[in-house]
Design brief:
The complex is a heterodimer of chains A (353) and B (225). Chain A is 22% helix and 37% strand. Chain A is built from 9 helices and 21 strands. Chain A has a 6-stranded mixed sheet with strand order 7-8-9-3-10-11, sandwiched between helices. In chain A, strands 2-1-4-5-6 form a 5-stranded antiparallel sheet, with helices on one face. In chain A, strands 14-13-12-15-21 form a 5-stranded antiparallel sheet. The longest helix of chain A is centred in the middle third of the chain and has 18 residues. Chain A starts with a strand and ends with a strand. By secondary structure, chain B is mostly helical. Chain B is built from 10 helices and no strands. Chain B starts with 6 loop residues before the first helix and ends with a helix. The chains are: A alpha+beta (353), B mainly alpha (225).
């Protein structure tokens, strides 16, 4: 964000009171938490869609809310682009009518949004005929067309099944790059947040219970369910017939080629239980990735896991306590991590900056 | 039975129903919108007053209009300084029909406005639309079918209006006689054939208007669901 987002607010909800305080300069703030933790209410409070919010909200030097001084800007004057879970596309307008709603005269912007979000073929369609993923892109496009100073995305992929959600992620990255729109993204999918956000707030019962970089905060155990996915970012250094090499910062990971092109930024996920650990470099393996690493954190117990650094990026690995003992793993131990190419999933890619 | 004896009443009925619908359209839709979206003091009083013509005998309203517009009434020539020329004219029939159809138009319009999700209006405002633009670009298009149905229901009610009309406008053949008052006149003089013909036309027009309004209501529900 060119400016900072700062809020200290309270909002009584059914069962608990949302009481949050945060200040950030992040361009991509994630808000993570289980259903009913207050994520959507926070977004509606920021958007100015909620009555009864007390406290103070400031963005980019402007005061959006100051209940003590009786200041409460409406959502239009806040300049937010709100994309709610249910999209709220206007059913009587076609795709293009929806996009133009907030910027009827800016021809160039509409055309750019149509191109970047790849909704050009949909422009004459009725919104009732759109699929879930198409609706999400049109809703995001409509918000972008209104030239928002801040995008507020409430589970933008929540209504979609997981594979489709992952297909929408690249559009969000593109929107961020092409339109420079900072955003607050609410999601209950840690992988989604880790893929696109550089800071995350974890909410529980209306309070912030953790905050920081997604790689640090969204670790296995704690807030997360089983099946933790590591999210790694790197630049595509080479593309082969079936796989591509992604430089994670000194360590190169072989991933499925997908639609990657050299020089692109790639976001890749690897499940924590899909990674093997060896003390010595194994040979004769089919796995394409045998990477040297060092253990920098070790957690014992029923949810035993360890963290290594791949380049400058953390990678969590789930394994049994017996394996930790047998391999005599300790903090600082040198290991090799083994990852099959097919165990790496390309979540998104964005063109060279 | 000759067409010539029915045509004046038929034409006047259509003319009165169309004019009375035009007369109530704006105030009834505005009140429907107000009741659908706003909380205010005295709201229940306004609701009760607006619904009154549904529950009071039309003859009572006819009597009130007669008192109001007669020469020494509050809207009469003595009070205003000029004659509005309402009593015993087709304009009186329009006024009586408008008053009696008003609550039906308000109620149906209110439901049409309530069926527009407020969050869509909120989204429009959030995208920079002014209140007038929200109304024009979102609310009215989404409520359109329900509002057309409301006006058609008002038109249907006006087609059959009798009690207030006969008191205010009288029952003068060729001048103020509508289908409804014409049937009464035909029965009184024992002209059953004419009564049957007038009743047939009444039923046909009423059915067409109600059937069309139902069609719009169905479309209205599917458009906003």
């Amino acid at each position: 964000m060119s400016g900072a987002l700062e809020f200290r607010l309270t909002l009584p909800l059914a069962g608990f009171t949302l009481a949050l305080e945060h200040a950030t300069r992040s361009r991509a703030l994630g808000v993570f938490g289980a259903s009913g933790s207050g994520k959507s209410s926070l977004l509606e409070a920021l958007a100015g869609w909620r009555g009864g919010v007390r406290g103070r909200i400031q963005f980019d030097g402007a005061t959006w809310l100051d209940s003590e001084r009786g200041v409460a800007l409406d959502s239009a004057r806040r300049g937010v682009g709100y994309v709610p879970q249910d999209q709220l596309l206007f059913p009587h307008l076609g795709v293009e009518g929806n996009l133009r709603f907030g910027c009827a005269r800016d021809e160039g912007l509409v055309e750019r949004v149509l191109r970047v979000l790849e909704i050009e073929p949909l422009r004459t369609r009725d919104v009732a005929s759109l699929s879930g993923g198409e609706r999400q892109r049109v809703a995001l496009g409509r918000a972008l067309c209104a030239r928002p100073r801040l995008l507020l995305l409430d589970e933008p992929f929540g209504a979609l099944d997981r594979p489709l959600r992952r297909r929408i992620l690249p559009y969000l990255l593109r929107a961020q790059r092409e339109f420079g729109a900072p955003f607050v993204l609410v999601s209950h999918d840690p992988t989604e947040i880790a893929a696109v956000c550089d800071e995350v707030l974890v909410l529980r019962g209306g309070c912030v219970v953790a905050r920081g970089a997604p790689a640090q905060v969204l670790a296995p155990g704690g807030e997360l369910d089983e099946g933790f996915e590591n999210v790694l970012r790197g630049r595509v250094s080479a593309v082969g017939a079936a796989s591509a090499s992604v430089d994670l910062g000194g360590v190169v990971l072989e991933v499925p080629r997908a639609e990657l092109a050299p020089g692109e930024l790639a976001v890749v996920s690897v499940r924590a239980d899909d990674v093997l650990v060896a003390r010595a470099a194994p040979t004769g393996l089919s796995a394409r990735n045998v990477l040297p690493a060092r253990v920098d954190e070790l957690v014992r117990g029923p949810a035993a896991r360890l963290r290594v650094q791949l380049g400058a990026q953390p990678l969590w690995i789930e394994l049994t306590e017996a394996a930790i003992d047998e391999l005599e793993l300790t903090r600082g131990a040198a290991v090799f991590v083994v990852v099959k190419t097919r165990a790496c999933r390309v979540l998104a890619s964005a063109g060279a900056a | 039975m000759q067409w010539e004896s029915v045509a004046p009443a038929l034409v006047l009925t259509l003319q009165v129903a169309a004019c009375s619908t035009a007369l109530v359209a704006l105030p009834a839709l505005a009140l429907g919108r107000l009741l659908a979206r706003r909380e205010f003091r005295g709201r229940s009083l306004v609701e009760a007053l607006a619904a009154l013509p549904l529950y009071c005998p039309p003859t009572a309203f006819g009597f009130l209009l007669l008192r109001a517009f007669r020469r020494d009434g509050p809207l009469g020539e003595q009070a205003l300084g000029f004659d509005l020329d309402v009593l015993l004219t087709w304009r009186g029939a329009v006024l009586a029909s408008a008053l009696m159809s008003f609550p039906l138009v308000v109620r149906t319009a209110r439901v049409a406005f309530e069926n527009v999700p407020p969050r869509l209006e909120h989204m429009a405002a959030s995208l920079g639309a002014s209140r007038a633009q929200v109304l024009w670009r979102v609310t009215l298009p989404l409520a359109r079918n329900g509002l057309i149905a409301a006006l058609l229901i008002g038109f249907s009610r006006a087609l059959g209006e009798f009690g207030a009309t006969v008191i205010v406008a009288g029952n003068i053949p060729g001048r103020t006689q509508t289908l409804a008052t014409g049937i009464f006149d035909a029965l009184q003089v024992g002209d059953d054939a004419r009564a049957v013909q007038l009743a047939g036309w009444s039923a046909l027009l009423g059915f067409a208007a109600v059937w069309t309004s139902e069609w719009f209501l169905r479309r209205s529900r599917s458009a906003t669901s």
